[in-house]
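Ticket #4471: complex job returned nothing on first submit. Input attached below:
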Amino acid sequence: MKKLLLVLLIAALLSVSVTAKTKITVWTFFGGGEGFIVTDLIKKFNAENPDIEVVEQIVEWGELYNKLTTAVVAGDPPDVSVMHLALVPDFASRGALTALDKYASKDLIADYVPPIISKAYFAGKLYAIPFDTHPLVFYYNKKLLKQAGLVDQNGQPLVPKTWDEMIEYAKTVKSKLGLETALSVELGPMIGERLFVAYYTQLGGEFYDQKTNTIKLDIEKAKKTYEFIKNLYDSNITKSMDYPTAESLFQNDQTVFHLNGVWVMAVYPTLGLEFGVTSLPSVAGSKPYTWADSHTWVIPKQAKEDPNKIKAAVKFIEWFARHSADWANAGHLPVLNSVLKSGEFLQLPMRKDYADVANYVVPAPSVKGWLEVRIKMWELGQAVILGQAKPEDAAKQLQQVIKDVLAD
Amino acid sequence: MIIHSKRRRTLLAYLLFLPFAILLIIFKLIPFANSVRMVFYKWDILGTPQFIGLANFRRMFSDKVFVSSLWHTFYFVILTVPPIMVLSFLVAVLANSKIYTQAKGFIRSAFYLPYTLTISVVCLTWTLLYNPYFGLISKATKSLGLKTINWLVDPTWAMPAVAITTVWWTIGFCVILYIAGLQQIPASYYEAAELDGATDFKKMIFITIPLLKRVHVLVIVTQIIASLQIFGQVYIMTAGGPAGKTRTIMQYIYEQGFRYFRMGYAQTMAFILFLIMLVFSYLQLRLMTSSSKEELI
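Support reply: We reran it on our side without changes. The output follows.
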């Protein structure tokens, strides 16, 4: 009997030491190359931190936010979730996220590039720990530019600095090489939201109204932006296409220019393609401002807050942010100054060519309802190009949507 | 004694019904009642619902996107239901005819196979087929010297393209229904008609088509109800584009409810869709009972 009791006691002690490990569940939507990097980083963290066990749960990309919403309502959300920076206001304003001011390390926050960390705040409180930025950038095919004779004295391909140059070069390459299209870009979010935001900002337009803390639109600049976008199609350098087609045309030397996010840098350098990547062309006299979103970690609101769990979760997400040079393998730009300048990041292929873009990113305004505005943008971009709406009407419609969203 | 045992039997019946009833009440009736209640509320899922009376209905009737989404849904019904009905009937007749005994199994499985595929597989396959740059369809039209259509990005062709995919995907189920119906028609009817010198065409018009009335009703109504709820195909193939031309009511309900956090408004539109489907279900019930009465006579 005594023996049995002793065995039980030992077993109980053992189980206590096992449960003393804090278990942190993390929801991500990363698949493919990105997925492997995250999984590896989590493994590394678990090995370095024996008192914490981070468990990754992969959720379908399109479903994560719906599931997160219902999980918060049900009082059973994960301890940590990935979230796009642009969506933080929509969740924070509804009380679905835990404010991190008490937990976050001051030195880490001070290390961020300013345009990104400022958007992680909502109503003065910190709700997210960003770990990358993924801007829209400009890709060009060096082989085709050389074949079309667009080279400088040293035989290096000419890279367009302004949009006018881009259109001119595209026309030249298209006619000289007999290409079907010279610029490949998805007609959808890429044109309607990302290029729109970039060009509108280059014109000097702003979405964030500091006076009222709401969204605004300069209707004249919006109209000009739609005219510019329509002209890309009217001048025949590009055609309407979906995302896989846009990638595939560029990967197969069938188009000289390509607009896409930096996330393709995980794959493009491995294809044996002779290409370059740089910041977007700009409106003459402007800086090459560009659209960008960021991946961040957030801590969803639990039914019962457990400070120890939150501390462990913050430890993990801060660790992840500091290790974002590994994550940058997926193509994304780091958002910590120390990582951006680190050799570990700069030795990655071609990263020097676009690391500078981090200074010109235009993240979404931290305003509730932006999601609805941006999805309307995807639709309006298509409407303008397919002749369903005039640039002027599209600009007016966009303004109306902003008004409706703000009034709601 | 007799009364007692009758009562016991009734009690037993209720007891046997109870497990189902409890599940029905918890998982269907209570959520349904709640969702109908939400029609009068503003609710962003995460916060507390606010009573707003009929504001959701007022919003709905002045919402152009609601009207256009409803129209796109009806347009999709018109584009899919008649072809599904006619084609599945023809395929069933072919699969059931005496001449093609050898090919019967092949036809049945060939037309039923797509129905066993998941929606994402079907949609991604057809998205590739429709691709104007590398797709099989554009390669075929190009070699025939026809103009290449950018199916899924063309405002005119996007919805028909989604409809074609849907017809291809769902036809198999209706073929099976029709084959079952055809096999129920007694051979003696055809023999009698042959004795009277009826041609194949006349047999089809006067025997086959009228005697399949129940199947026709079943196919029409189930397909209308299924097509009214179209969501997956447009969500995957066009995302409601180009320029919102293929946005259907289910998709709009999803967007408003889950993307824009307007659950009350989404419920209001879902309630209207429910009423529309209720009308069709009622029609089905009426037509089915009247046709079964006719058969008894």
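The domain at 64-296 of chain B is CATH 1.10.3720.10 (MetI-like fold). Closing as resolved unless it happens again.
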